[in-house]
């Protein structure tokens, strides 16, 4: 049974509540298996550490992105405003949550547009489903004067929703049509189940230039949807998906520099972010923890973002990297444990990461 425009705002609010009540996972994103080799002679000054990054043709002061979270219900306007103020303070890119509700009901547009008002010069990403009509995607971009458009893939979540989609035929063609129909770069993202190399290649073949792997180990929409229904979900299904580190390396290996890649899903510290960047991610995204902080207070959100940026700089200095290029090219990264097993099973050698010169 398809969801109508009156039911959707209630679901958006339930997602926020569910994310605040539920722990991450189960399953692990893989960052605890990744170690950055300490450099005892970094020859760097803390003030030299440069976090600037580049995403979809724009230079950004931070490699950390506030990923797609919310909008589409009256109460979310305040949250998007606070997220945008935080993004502006740190020069971060920011995505909004799915805008379909506001395309169908224009009175909800302001719950998204507040982001552009608070952050006029910001790198703002619009967001729709990968199955959305091209016109919906175009209106979502225009609504925000967006700099890029995220299109999300969320098959497990749809299957877990009574009102969710059941047919996923034609999604790739639709993404191609969306890309041809909007005037900004299109980023294809998951929502917490990861992207594998083969599918990344298919997206590259249709001309997609940026992906967000959004792997397993952080916010889990199977758990959130089960919580929303007041049901227990079979534990085996709850652990579905590719861990973020595995997904990141699978995609990087399969696409060999043809796309920019954001790592997200279970990034929970500045150190996690630096690990992802050292493995080759262009950007790093966070969603769930930012919601939890913001529900406490806007001050807490800003303080935590400050701390995350300091932790990124600290970790970079300790491995001797002055900027993201040095981090990717010169820092040695050791990958152990289950993540190494996954990678070996996928034919990806961990040795080159550990033996950079
Ligand atoms: C409350 C909430 C709502 C979300 N809504 C969307 C959405 O509308 N569109 C989307 O692409 N991703 C959405 N996401 C997924 C995030 O963008 C991200 O991919 C995922 O949560 C994994 O990152 P995390 O572990 O840091 O939360 C949402 C996440 C949260 C926490």
Q: How widely separated are the two ends?
A: 57 Å
User: Which sequence of strands runs across the widest sheet?
Assistant: 4-5-6-7-8-9-10-11
In angstroms, what is the radius of gyration?
A: 19 Å
> Overall pLDDT, averaged?
96
Give the CATH H-level superfamily: Aldolase class I
Strand content: 5-15%
Give a list of the ligands: flavin mononucleotide
Q: Which regions have little confidence, pLDDT < 50, spanning 5+ residues?
A: none
Q: Briefly, what CATH class?
A: Alpha Beta
The geometry reads as: globular
What is the element string, with H for helices and E for strands?
HEEEEHEHHEHEHHEHEHHHEHEHHHEHH
The assembly state of the depicted protein chains is single chain
Output the number of helix runs.
17
CATH structural architecture: Alpha-Beta Barrel
Tell me the domain tally: 1
Sheet of most strands: 8 strands, parallel, barrel
As a percent range, the share of helical residues equals 40-55%
Number of strand elements? 12
What structural class is derived from the secondary structure elements? alpha/beta
Task: Provide a descriptive summary of the structure in words.
The chain has helices spanning 7-21, 76-90, 100-104, 110-118, 134-144, 155-160, 171-181, 197-205, 221-229, 235-238, 244-255, 270-279, 288-296, 298-318, 324-330, 337-345, 351-354, and strands spanning 34-36, 53-55, 58-60, 64-66, 93-95, 124-129, 148-152, 186-189, 210-212, 260-264, 283-286, 333-335. With 357 residues, it is α/β, with parallel strands linked by helices. It has one domain (7-28, 54-301): Alpha-Beta Barrel (TIM Barrel), CATH 3.20.20.70. Strand 2 and strand 3 form a beta hairpin. The longest helix has 21 residues, at 298-318. The protein is globular, with a radius of gyration of 19 Å. The site of flavin mononucleotide has 26 residues, from helix 1, strand 7 and helix 13.
């Amino acid at each position: 049974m398809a969801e109508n425009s009156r039911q959707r705002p209630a679901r958006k609010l339930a997602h926020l509540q569910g994310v605040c009540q539920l722990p991450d996972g189960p399953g692990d994103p893989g960052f605890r298996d990744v170690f950055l080799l300490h450099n005892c002679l970094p020859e760097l000054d803390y003030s030299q550490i440069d976090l600037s990054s580049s995403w979809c043709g724009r230079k950004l002061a931070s490699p950390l992105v506030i990923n797609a979270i919310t909008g589409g219900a009256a109460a979310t306007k305040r949250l998007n405003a606070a997220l945008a103020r935080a993004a502006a303070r740190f020069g971060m890119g920011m995505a909004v949550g799915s805008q379909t509700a506001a395309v169908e009901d224009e009175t909800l547009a302001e719950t998204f547009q507040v982001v552009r008002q608070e952050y006029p010069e910001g790198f703002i990403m619009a967001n729709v489903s990968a199955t959305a009509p091209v016109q919906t995607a175009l209106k979502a971009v225009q609504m925000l004067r967006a700099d890029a458009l995220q299109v999300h893939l969320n098959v497990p979540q749809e299957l877990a929703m009574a009102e969710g989609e059941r047919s996923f035929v034609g999604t790739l063609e639709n993404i191609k049509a969306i890309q041809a129909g909007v005037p900004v770069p299109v980023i294809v993202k998951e929502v917490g189940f990861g992207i594998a190399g083969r599918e990344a290649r298919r997206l590259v073949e249709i001309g997609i230039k940026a992906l967000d792997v959004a792997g397993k180990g952080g916010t889990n929409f199977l758990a959130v949807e089960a919580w929303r229904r007041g049901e227990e979900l079979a534990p085996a299904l709850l652990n579905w998906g590719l861990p973020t580190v595995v997904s990141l390396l699978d995609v990087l290996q399969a696409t060999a520099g043809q796309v920019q890649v954001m790592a997200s899903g279970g990034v929970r510290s500045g150190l996690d972010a630096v690990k992802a960047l050292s493995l080759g991610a262009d950007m790093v995204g966070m969603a769930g923890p930012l919601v939890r902080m913001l529900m406490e207070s806007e001050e807490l959100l800003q303080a935590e973002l400050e701390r995350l940026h300091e932790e990124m700089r600290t970790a970079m200095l300790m491995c001797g990297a002055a900027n993201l290029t040095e981090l990717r090219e010169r820092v040695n990264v050791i990958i152990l444990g289950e993540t190494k097993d996954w990678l070996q099973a996928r034919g990806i050698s961990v040795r080159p990461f550990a033996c950079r010169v």
